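Internal tracking record. Fields below are filled automatically when a chain is submitted to the structure queue. Please do not edit lines marked as system-generated. If the sequence contains nonstandard residues, flag them in the REMARKS field before resubmitting.
Queue: standard
Priority: normal
Entity type: single polypeptide chain
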Amino acid sequence: MGLWLNGAMLFRARRRSPSRREQWRDFARRLELTDAERQEARLREWLDLGDSALSPLYGLRRPGQPTLFLFDQDRARTGPTGTVTTLASGVLLRAPASLAAAPLRAQARRNPVLESIEAGRTGSRRLALSEWPDFDAEVSVFARDEGVARAWLTGPVQRTMQRMLVGRGVSPMLVVGNRHMLVLCEGAEAAPFEALEALASDLFTLFAMVGGTDGVAEDAQDEDAQDEGAQDEGASLPEA
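SYSTEM-GENERATED OUTPUT FOLLOWS
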């Protein structure tokens, strides 16, 4: 009996944990996502995603809704002390027509020096939002057109952004462009799938808040074919 118990315990100890790719497959199956790796070149035309592969890349398209993409990406930064590799996980909504939203970037508050570097790199400015102290204390918003961005930052939008950027435990970057809403999580550890699912839900909530799209949406495939090669305004991401 003792030998059997020891053997069972040894078997459990040796049982391999599922790999990140296996976890992705289970996640995709549960959310009814499909393999979208053939769309990688198109995503690179829309967004500045660096050189490393988006793998895996999954998508979900429903009639009358923006297309959802989710992916992992290994990223490398080289500095004086060597190369540091991180894992980025992205959740992207691609609208069928231009969004009625302001191009902007937002993230949890950081060191003022880092925020100044971020603003200079993207040609934007960090908005001073002292009239919304609770939001301003937790979230930094960068935009080129301050008036348009302020008009978009309604109370419900602020609350959703706070939940996304501060309350999900992954400190992502939100990028809103002409036809995209992207959340990018980057760190030494992979973003939990529970957080990615919650962030996808948050993006759909934001999409609904801005009234969907600005103007009449054309067929998504025709629209995508027309703007191939045109990168979305506001789509520059943190450099790999």
